[in-house]
Ubiquitin-like protease family profile domain-containing protein (Colocasia esculenta), 118 residues
Amino acid sequence: MHVLKVTYCWGHWNLLIMCNLGKSFNNNYSPCMILLDSLIISEPLKAEPTIRRFVKDLYHTQGKLASSRTIGSISLLLPKVPQQKDGEVCGVFTLYYIYLFLKSAPTTFSFTSYPYFV
């Protein structure tokens, strides 16, 4: 299962893709998160604590227990993606990232095929 979440933080849009959330933490298809940010100078990892709280809440609403330690073990990947040249088009880039992901996303994400959509 993949979950796409568009985030808006500090006046900037980016895309968080959560992959394999229903999978075991012990195999090649472990849960992971991919943060796509068109303005890397915005320091996207500042949002990591908020992202991890969101994931913990997501697990909780699905009736699954997940400790902070378990949520903390989910990889947060920050691949190189096309970057915007000014501070005004992040929304367009976010839509483009969504399009690319949906166009070619496999049913199950594997680290061996990452990043296949950029």
